[in-house]
Amino acid sequence: MNTMKFSASALAILAVSATAAAARDQIQVAGSSTVLPYSTIVAEAFAENMDFTAPVVEGGGTGAGLKQFCAGVGENTLDIANASRPIREAELAECQANGVTDIMEVQFGYDGIVFASSISGPDFVLTPADVYKALAAQVVVDGQMAANPATTWADVNPSLPTQEITVYVPGTKHGTREVFEEKVMVAGCEESGALEAMTAMSDEDTAEEACVTLRTDGRSVDIDGDYTETLARIGSNPNGIGIFGLSFYENNTDKLKVATIDGVAPSVETVASGEYPVSRPLFFYVKKDHIGVIPGLKEYAEFFVADAIAGPGGPLSEYGLVPDPELATVQQAVAGETVMGAN
Q1: Residue 57's closest CA among 73, 80, 34?
Q2: pLDDT tens track for 201-213
Q3: C-beta separation of 145 from 210 below 8 A
Q4: What is the DSSP letter of 325?
Q5: Contact 175, 202 (CB under 8 A)
Q6: Model confidence, pTM
Q7: How far apart are the C-alpha atoms of 327 and 310, rounded to whole Å?
Q8: Do residues 33 and 243 touch, judged by C-beta distance below 8 A?
Q9: What is the rounded distance in angstroms from the CA atom of residue 265 to the CA atom of residue 85?
């Protein structure tokens, strides 16, 4: 493994013709746009260092990838789904209903979710409460629910810049959205006292739903594409703030300036230590029934989590991945083809 080659083009997405893919001598991977660059690096290195054809790697979002993955078993179905959140119970039920019963869940590292704006813009020192107050569709005003009146960040918090609120938020098919809702919107709703106030008016479930319901007046803008689309939006709107994965930001520091959250700047070190509050594990899911049918599938999974790839100092950590401290346990599970729910 120490003699592995990593070409300069490792970040290019591997594209092949539909005819080549149909031959199924290639592993097919789709899903999270956050995991996409990591998976692409691994796919190219795998092809360069192993006697297998380069896997086909596509994005589309966590939800879309898992939907393809759960469609069934067979050469016309996906082998691996990349995910920036754990698979949901409803998705597992869909898998089961379609005969996808043996699923290997592989957690390979961690990433942070960051708020970043134009490199030429002002500094932002944010808290989850600030973000909630800026983006919630309705907020508590004088003990009653009202449409969010804030138009600038200074309206939310006088210490913030007097800049128009425009935030580009990953769409609902992205795993990043779920983590943003849980660790920023709900956390900020609770921190600000709004969750308690809304619960007193209705019930906890209704209040939490209100916490994550975003504005539709142009202040919060869903982005269904990947992070490059968000970056382009900021390029055309210097007032915009985008929500990105840490690794994407760290590879675009010449264009973006990152905000602190609760006084902590996002970095590999602060995510690894748990100091940075908005982080999440990253996964890929392997269809065990395809091992031994699709050439190189198990070998690819083992290659992905090898120390030389996903460990400290490997190409994934150089791109921005925070290595999983339990990587040795993950390697054993992959080698043993351990499936979800196994004792």
Answers
A1: 80
A2: 888 888 899 999 9
A3: yes
A4: T
A5: no
A6: 0.74
A7: 8
A8: no
A9: 22
